């Protein structure tokens, strides 16, 4: 007899718990029910339910393992055309932005970081009155189109101290500026005089080279960032 059958027999028929087996007619009926239950348990002991249960338990982990592997593969697959990790592919650097320089504070600057957006290259000199009049428009555009437009000041024809004073006095410090006193970048873009703009579209194509008044500059920028 199994441990389950023995437990039921001891607990129900022998009355190990006081008051469990009722007396009289009810007692005879109760004992008859217990005998039927025990007969069923004894008959069950002759079959092989344990083997069936073990087989089912063995199949379940295997199926779970297959499902887990499939889920892992589905989770790690990248969408077609997406860069690994979901990051956007970096913009190609056009020839117009393949240059480096030094900021007014002496830090290295790589123009390749501006690829993918319209860009204004503002060539100015610290003693230039026309450049000073352009400063307000530059500051306004920097504030209005931050994140959509690059603006880079390229200062020349003066010393670093005067360049710093120009930026501070005219409040264009939010725009990065390069110290090009030797004129390397001015020569690269063919700049002959200060207060000149070189404007690039988002692909890096030069669309403007020359002087623009405030209205012309603003209109051009709006068309490029639209």
Automatic annotation (TrEMBL):
The cross-references to Pfam families, in alphabetical order and at most eight, read: AhpC-TSA
Q: Which domain of life is it from?
A: Bacteria
Gene3D superfamilies registered for this protein in UniProt: Glutaredoxin (3.40.30.10)
**Sequence ranges assigned to domain Thioredoxin in this UniProt record:** 82-226
GO molecular function annotation: antioxidant activity; oxidoreductase activity
The name this protein carries in UniProt is Thioredoxin domain-containing protein
């Amino acid at each position: 007899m199994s441990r389950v059958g023995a437990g039921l027999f001891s607990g129900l028929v022998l009355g190990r718990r006081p008051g469990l087996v009722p007396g009289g007619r009810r007692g005879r009926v109760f004992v008859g029910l217990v005998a039927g239950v025990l007969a069923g348990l004894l008959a069950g002991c002759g079959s092989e339910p344990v083997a069936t249960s073990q087989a089912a338990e063995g199949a379940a982990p295997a199926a779970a393992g297959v499902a887990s592997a499939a889920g892992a593969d589905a989770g790690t697959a990248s969408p077609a055309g997406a860069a690994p990790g979901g990051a956007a592919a970096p913009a190609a650097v056009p020839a117009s932005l393949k240059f480096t320089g030094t900021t007014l504070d002496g830090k290295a600057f790589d123009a390749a970081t501006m690829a993918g957006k319209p860009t204004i290259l503002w060539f100015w000199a610290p003693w230039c009155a026309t450049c000073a009049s352009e400063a307000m428009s530059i500051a306004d555009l920097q504030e209005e189109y931050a994140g959509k437009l690059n603006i880079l000041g390229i200062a020349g024809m003066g010393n670093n101290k005067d360049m710093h004073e120009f930026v501070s006095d005219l409040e264009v410090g939010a725009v990065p500026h390069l110290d090009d006193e030797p004129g390397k970048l001015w020569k690269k873009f063919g700049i002959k005089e200060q207060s000149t703009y070189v404007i690039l579209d988002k692909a890096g194509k030069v669309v403007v080279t020359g002087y623009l008044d405030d209205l012309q500059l603003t209109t051009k920028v709006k068309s490029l960032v639209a």
